[in-house]
Amino acid sequence: MTAGIYLDYQATTPLAPEALAAMRPWLQQGFANPHSPHAPGRAARAAVEVARDQLNATLGAARGRTIFTSGATEAANIAIQGLMHHAPTGRRKVVTIATEHACVRDTALWLGSHGYECALLPVHADGLVDLDAAAAEIDDRTALVAAMLVNNEIGVIQPIATLSEMARARGARVFCDAVQGFGRVELPLQACDMVALSAHKIHGPKGIGALWLADGVELAPIVHGGAQEGGLRSGTLSPALCAGFGAAAMLMSDTAEADAAHVGALAAFARERLEDWNINGSISNRYAGNLNIRRNGIDAARLISELRRVAFSAGSACASGSGRPSHVLSALGLTDSEARSSIRLGFGRYTSLDELEQATAMIVEAAERQLAFSA
Questions:
Q1: Is 318 labeled as catalytic in the residue annotation?
Q2: Is the pTM of this model over 0.90?
Q3: Pairing mode of beta strands 117-121, 93-97
């Protein structure tokens, strides 16, 4: 692995040693198919159920059920498409936010081109949803309101509970993409009917996510085959990935207070060192470990290319390389130039203050060189 400073925690997080240790037995001797009826298969199945119980415990889910998926993208698609396909006549509308992750936004737009109605709610300049627009759009035709807890690009925390009140007053269900918020900010589970999670955003392995469903939520499956996971997600589960997810979730719960304090201190330091940069999105209603900032005149792509020792981004990893300005930053009202002058720094449990000090010094120096050259 190339030595460097990793500041891209929104794209993925380093695998926790505890998660790796939990996975190893099921990658080696415990290789049996968890859906097989023999003893090794039953042992593998038991590991899956232990992981499911661990995840439910960290969610505080006394009701409902959790199914494992290949990731949050699949979880979101199962939730959104599954509910809309199951929606009664007269409720063919999905309402979501313009700044949602592509797995939600694009799924809603796809439904909008296939016989359903899709409404994208605007946001204010701080990235928070326009609640007046939400009140106008969420009506008796609405089957689903989909909103992410913490935005993956700018870190703002959306008012899920308020949106839920509007939705439930109209008889609509609520889906929450909690990928970036799980374990980092309070998750209003009681306000949700469906919640998507991802292991690799909480120091677990890639390739596994989960969908929590409240009691009474009925979905039409969009993946067909062996009817695993209660008939909603066919396919063979990986006991190793499940075990890693469960261990990462338990560790996240145990270290939540210490992690929050550490991230808060790092954020305060970074803001001080980068005082000449403007923060994109709300300054107060945000997760501290996501610092999306801009400085006019800076070419973010060039900055990333120059600073090979520091891993950071210009936005969502899912949209990198598209050449298009971020739809999130555009929704905030930023110009293309401002969006292309923006970078995202993400840090967490395993980021040291020394690393952040080195990285911010290099970013400041490289930015000043760019500005001096273009003057």
A1: yes
A2: yes
A3: parallel
